[in-house]
Amino acid sequence: METRVVRSEGCYDGRRLVSVPIYQSALFPFQSAEEGAALFAKKAEGYFYTRFGNPTHTAFEKLMANLEGGEGGVAFSSGMAAILTIVYVLCKRGGQVLASNPIYGGTYSLFADILPAMGVDLRYLDAQTFPQALPKAVSKRTQVLFLESPTNPTMDMVDIEAVAGFGKKHGIPVVVDNTFATPFHQQPLGMGATAVLHSATKYLGGHGDTIGGIVVADRGLADKVKQEQIRMGNNIAPFTAWLLMRGTKTLALRMERHSENALAVARYLEGHPKVKRVYYPGLPSHPQYSLARKQMKNGFSGMVAFEIKGGRKEGARFLDNLNLCVVAISLGAVETLIEHPASMTHASVSAEELKKGGISEGMIRMSVGIENKEDIIADLEQGLRKI
Question: Within this chain, do residues 239 and 256 fall inside the same structural domain, yes or no?
Fold first, then answer.
């Protein structure tokens, strides 16, 4: 993986360049009328309009397909655009989506608003017991099994291999949001998933300076997703694809540091008297520690959640007194980012669903950065002293 992120096929376009160019052009002229007709008839391959494709897009898509072990990738303007498009492709009116709970607040909002408009039913299943619940929950209407692992923000693990095996047996596609783990730690397609997606904004980009998404699947499904993307017009910009490709080149180095720091932070928080509970799959105290060790490799990523004693009020006081850690809603950047899910990333989730998903008023979600781990812990220590 360390080599593939740097020297993967797709990062070079045959022109003996170290860096893929940014093809910042909306149009690519035809060499002849015959060529134009052949491209539109899909009898030839090439580029003519960036909504349909761009060499910089292609390079990033090939890179991600290589890293995730898929045949084709489709790059989007955001992670939400990637989720919307893959679900739109796989679902038809009268169908049903079974999704893991909890789930990212943006995904929850999209599913709550868009799926009913599509005539698609939605049902959530507890993430930890997702595979066991499927036999009773699935029906002839079920068209997609959608899951996160680890989940956002509670860091629950879903047994991807078990869900994928069930999906294959019953002919139901399994879509995995792999944003938290990245292909460095986890490769769902290798466990049998149908498609994998990312908010590329996060760990793939790694620097909090651009927004994008990616879907990776087999060639047939990737082509269908691409056709819908062309119609929807939610493709990525060439410069964004280039930034994400540049960020991904350091993915292995960054994820090693993120994971090392997160484990140190989780161990520190677990021993603090003002912390009620810590959620991190790399801790032996995590209820699914054995599954995490089986399913993830090279560490357990940089996401940590924890509950502060005193609930929402003390949680807000804690955030307001931090100096090094940045209070912001995103994740996966080189800086340590920290937020309050119930009032921020999951504000659109109903109180009932928050409770079902195990998201308490005192929960804090932390994206541990690559700074010196002792500096991160020192900031947490001084903030906890003030609550």
Answer: no
Is the domain of 165 the same as that of 32?
yes
Contact 186, 298 (CB under 8 A): no
Q: Are 318 and 306 in contact (CB under 8 A)?
A: no
Decide if 92 is catalytic.
no
Q: Which of 13, 47, 51, 309 is catalytic?
A: 51
Q: Of the residues 104, 108, 203, 280, which is catalytic?
A: 104
**β-strands 275-279, 303-308 pairing:** antiparallel
Clarify whether residues 312 and 381 are in a common domain.
yes
Print pLDDT tens along the chain (387 aa).
898 888 775 555 555 677 888 999 999 999 999 999 999 998 999 999 999 999 999 999 999 999 999 999 999 999 999 999 999 999 999 999 999 999 999 999 999 999 999 999 999 999 999 999 999 999 999 999 999 999 999 999 999 999 999 999 999 999 999 999 999 999 999 999 999 999 999 999 999 999 999 999 999 999 999 999 999 999 999 999 999 999 999 999 999 999 999 999 999 999 999 999 999 999 999 999 999 999 999 999 999 999 999 888 898 999 999 999 999 999 999 999 999 998 888 888 888 888 888 888 889 999 999 999 999 999 999 999 999
* Residue 267 belongs to domain with CATH number: 3.90.1150.10
Residue at token pair 């790399």: 282
Q: Is 51 an annotated catalytic residue? A: yes
Query: Do residues 238 and 257 both lie within one domain?
Result: no
CA-based nearest residue to 307, from 155, 158, 202? 155
Which of 217, 248, 279 is a domain's end point? 248
CB 261 within 8 A of CB 376: yes
Q: Which domain holds residue 50?
A: 4-248
Q: Which of 108, 124, 159, 177 is catalytic?
A: 177
Annotation says 12 is catalytic: no
Q: Are 204 and 248 in contact (CB under 8 A)?
A: yes
23, 62, 156, 202: which is the annotated catalytic residue? 202
Domain boundary among 248, 270, 293: 248
Residue 136 φ/ψ, nearest 5 degrees: -85, -30
Residue 209 among the catalytic residues? no
Both 258 and 159 in one domain: the answer is no
